[in-house]
């Protein structure tokens, strides 16, 4: 049985743009986020408070975040931001962020490349971040990368993912997002991981899925997750994205492709597909190349 409604966690402005080589002007990012809100997206990941040298594209977080105040006028829009450590938390809280995300890894190689830490050292780095955020009533999402496969380590054992997922929940994260960072998952693997998490006491209701579409499996994987009871799905407008610290990762599941499928299934998202498509077409013009989303291409074809 499928859920009647799901929440889309829009990551185009963060996961999408972080991979763009050319720095996008701050005003364009703010306009992109505003248009996403107008299109009905209610959770829009805005930026990251990471080291600017690690992700130069998002080095303007201090300039961007204050521009988003007016988006509150559009409705009840949540604007989560990525925060790896206490320095990042200080920066985010100083600007009034009310939702943060820490981002761990199921594999040692990616933890080293993305966070300059071992898996356990990164959990130790997150511990005071989550504790302070919770004390301040700030909502915390815990991303978990490389839940299915890792470009350096190959297939990732389910038990290894469950251990880190459990640890993130034990730190106090309000929700998890299971990342298929390089897009290698298939539906059977998704079901196996969700079942193993349930057995370890991690409920599906607080677990989102985050699929990249490298092998064209993101929608099939999403459907498998919905059938398992998942109600939060990450996607990026126009299928923007990738990860600068994970070779071979392509963009996230395109939000338009997701909404097209959900509309067909009669699942409510609150998103206006035409307005969203127009936003992705507009952003593609700004970036100077077409959106990889099949739905954007189909709906915008002359
Ligand atoms: P580090 O070099 O180990 O940092 O990097 P450090 O703690 O040793 O500090 C070194 C210097 O950096 C210090 O400055 C700190 O103040 C400064 P100094 O005292 O030398 O002058 N610093 C900072 N400055 C600004 N903001 C900060 C910050 N932290 C330290 N937050 C660190 C460790 C975590 C900072 C670094 O590895 C980093 O920024 N990594 C971010 C990588 C990233 O953003 N990756 C992409 C997001 S993850 C993703 O895309 C996957 C996801 O989509 C899910 C999926 O698909 O799987 C979420
Ligand atoms: Mg990602």
From TrEMBL:
<protein>
    <submittedName>
        <fullName>Hydroxymethylglutaryl-CoA lyase</fullName>
    </submittedName>
</protein>
<dbReference type="Pfam" id="PF00682">
    <property type="entry name" value="HMGL-like"/>
</dbReference>
<dbReference type="InterPro" id="IPR000891">
    <property type="entry name" value="PYR_CT"/>
</dbReference>
<keyword id="KW-0479">Metal-binding</keyword>
<dbReference type="GO" id="GO:0016829">
    <property type="term" value="F:lyase activity"/>
</dbReference>
<comment type="similarity">
    <text>Belongs to the HMG-CoA lyase family.</text>
</comment>
<dbReference type="InterPro" id="IPR043594">
    <property type="entry name" value="HMGL"/>
</dbReference>
<feature type="domain" description="Pyruvate carboxyltransferase">
    <location>
        <begin position="6"/>
        <end position="277"/>
    </location>
</feature>
<keyword id="KW-0456">Lyase</keyword>
<dbReference type="InterPro" id="IPR013785">
    <property type="entry name" value="Aldolase_TIM"/>
</dbReference>
